[in-house]
Amino acid sequence: MIAKTQRTKRVPARLNDCEVTQDNAVNDEGDLIHFALLADSEPLNYRDALKSNVRKKAMEEELKSIEKNQTWKLVALPYKKKRIDVKWVFKVKLNPDGTISKHKARLVANMGLTTMRFLHQLLELKL
Fold this sequence. Notes:
The chain is α+β, with helices and mostly antiparallel strands.
């Protein structure tokens, strides 16, 4: 049997002015109540991110970090090999009071399952 946690659950400070309901809450007509408010949502692609100076700066910081740490190396693609695509992932980090702490941008490998299996096997061979 799994014991239920004894810790006290608290609502984050940024939600103090919000009305919080249960997932299964219904209104007087019996309809489920669901709200989704996105005050500062993350962009879904780099084109949208480039429209914002703070996100553009976050992308530049990520590229500088990659170069400084020599995380990746650009090489000529060997014959009959597939390239590994990359994609930008954007996040907004919040302070406990809900204010924006930082805009983050990460350049990550956009791999399919086959590529991930191959890299996993390659890493096992090196270990």
